[in-house]
Design goal:
Layout (H helix, E strand, L loop, with lengths): L3 E10 L5 E10 L3 E5 L6 H9 L6 E7 L2 E4 L11 H5 L2 H11 L5 H4 L6 H11 L15 H14 L4 E5 L7 H13 L3 E5 L3 H4 L4 E6 L2 E6 L2 H53 L4 H43 L16 E10 L8 E9 L3 E5 L6 H8 L7 E6 L3 E4 L12 H8 L5 H9 L17 H13 L7 E5 L7 H13 L3 E5 L3 H7 L3 E4 L4
Parallel strand pairs: 3-7, 3-8, 5-6, 6-7, 12-16, 12-17, 14-15, 15-16
Antiparallel strand pairs: 1-2, 1-4, 8-9, 10-11, 10-13
Helix pairs in contact: 5-6, 9-10, 12-13, 12-14, 13-14
């Protein structure tokens, strides 16, 4: 039987009773399928349901073939090694005991002498040179991602389930993943916001709280279809509004005609120029006709309002997210940031930043680029005063906001409104709700705690909290801002930064995002 995965009527409800998605129907075969959807809609949960980590609230999952899953940001156990990741620790231990003559003849028959070579080849194929006994916590996030991808391929599955496979990788690592996926001959289900990777998909499945919709082709084809759907939904709203207004106008005209006839009837009765029986008959007929007309217009109004409500609900679902950043009025000639011959890092004996100078003037966009391990995040910490430089000076001359990937600015036990007020002590509760609403957190959503949000939702909430500050930050420092954002969030952030009149300093490996940002300067750090 050909390998396949089928989802039938799949639903999942969170522990607090909140439905995540309902009635998902999907079939996956020997093709590369990208899973997209807004942050928090349940893309990672869908993969966990397929691999058996979670049980669905309703529905069925049928799997034919072997699967391997790459989990997003899995935290390794302190004793876990690369061999554990590959599931071969006991097999390698057997080989080591065999080398030392410590196994029986029966055990010797089970020894796989090709294992060390195959494991090494799998790691090298994914750009990682490391020993099997290397502890995972000794590896960087990017290195762990490479090792995890190698382990998935090593198991020779019929289906790869990959959750954000490029999220911790530099450009070279992202290119490696794209190459592997392009040449993958079997099935793959890939949750990703990496638009370059999604361009290599055979199909796109969009997950919403109402189910899953398949679109044939890559991300560009999907985006074209979605834009057409948004336009059609907006046109439907316009037509529904016109139909409602037309019904209201005709009802008003009918009411005015009735009022004129009633007035004429009253005058005729007052003159008594017709027999009373005729006047009473005319009155009853007019009242009956008016009642029929009123009922007709009531039904038409109800139908028009239902049509308009339905049309508006589609726009609400399809309409892209907006992020509105208030103006900063940063002067064009203002010195924003100056680094003067900076050297530093975590280890004084081995600094990763050497004699670096940089000046940002006015609303410039500056990109910090470089491979994993080149010191990009370290440089951000030196700039923001979290690490003191060993030599040189680092000065920021304007109010600034720093948003890292982990949103360390939040108090996890406080809701978003409370966090906003902690970060902005002079603000009112009304200002907090207004600022959060501009970034999509309206009504009860503003009362959620950060630990109930997805990574992309936390970034949006962080932007809302720091960009609503007083004084308004004139410098935004962003460390991999698109890593956890969904497609709509990335598009909204790109649009917001395009209209932002302050300075931007950003670390990013997202080529599409960088092209849209159009940095004035690019600072490229070298690998150590």
């Amino acid at each position: 039987m050909p390998a396949s995965i089928s989802l039938s009527g799949l639903s999942y409800t969170k522990a607090d009773g909140t439905p995540l998605f309902t009635d998902v129907h999907a079939h996956f075969s020997r093709e590369r399928t990208g899973i997209v959807g807004r942050n928090g809609v349940g893309k990672t949960t869908l993969l966990r349901l397929i691999c058996g980590d979670l049980r669905p609230t309703a529905g069925n999952i049928k799997i034919s073939g072997k699967i391997a899953i790459l989990r997003q940001d899995a935290i390794p156990h302190p004793d876990e090694t690369i061999a554990d990741l590959f599931g071969v620790r006991s097999a390698l231990d057997l080989l080591e005991r065999a080398d030392n003559g410590l196994i029986s003849s029966d055990e010797l028959a089970d020894a796989d002498w090709t294992l060390p070579t195959r494991l090494s080849e799998a790691l090298i194929r994914c750009g990682l040179s490391a020993e099997a006994d290397t502890p995972l916590h000794h590896l960087s996030g990017g290195q762990r991602s490479r090792a995890a991808i190698a382990a998935c391929l090593f198991s020779k599955p019929d289906f790869l389930l990959l959750d954000e496979p490029t999220i911790n990788l530099d450009q070279r690592g992202r290119d490696m993943v794209r190459s592997l996926i392009k040449s993958w001959p079997k099935g793959a289900i890939i949750v990703s916001h990496d638009r370059d990777l999604l361009e290599d998909m055979d199909s796109i499945v969009e997950l919403t709280m109402f189910g899953a919709t398949r679109y044939g082709g890559n991300y560009s084809a999907f985006r074209q279809r979605k834009d057409a759907e948004i336009l059609a939904a907006e046109q439907e709203v316009n037509l529904a509004e016109k139909a409602r207004d037309d019904v209201n106008r005709r009802a008003q005209q009918a009411s005015e005609r009735k009022a004129r006839k009633d007035s004429a009837g009253k005058k005729a009765r007052a003159k008594r120029d017709q027999p009373k029986i005729m006047l009473d008959f005319a009155k009853e007929r007019a009242e009956s006709s008016a009642g029929d007309t009123a009922r007709l217009y009531h039904a038409q109004r109800h139908e028009a309002e239902d049509r308009l409500s339905s049309a508006r609900s589609k726009v609400e679902i399809l309409q892209p997210l907006r992020m509105d950043i208030p103006p900063t009025h940063l002067p064009a000639g203002k010195t924003v940031l100056r680094l003067d011959h900076v050297t530093g890092g975590y280890n004084p004996a081995q600094p990763v930043i050497h004699d670096l100078s940089l000046t940002i003037t006015g609303p410039e966009h500056v990109l910090i680029a470089g491979p994993n391990g080149s010191g990009k995040t370290t440089l951000i910490k030196i700039i923001t005063g979290q690490i003191c430089p060993q030599r040189g000076t680092a000065d920021i001359f304007v109010p600034y906001a720093l948003l890292d990937q982990h949103m360390g600015l939040f108090m996890p036990d406080k809701n978003l409104c409370e966090n906003y007020l902690l970060l902005n002590p002079t603000a009112t509760i009304h200002m907090a709700h207004s600022a959060l609403a501009r970034f999509g957190f309206r009504a009860d959503a503003a009362l959620l705690t950060p630990n109930r949000l997805s990574g992309g939702q936390r970034l949006r909430a962080g932007l809302a909290c720091v960009l609503g500050a007083d004084p308004q930050p004139m410098l935004l420092i962003l460390d991999e801002p698109t890593n956890h954002l969904d497609m709509d969030g990335i598009a909204a952030l790109e649009a917001a930064l395009k209209n932002y009149d302050g300075a931007v300093l950003v670390v990013s490996h997202d080529d599409a995002f960088v092209k849209t940002l159009a940095p004035h300067h690019r600072l490229t750090l070298s690998a150590q």
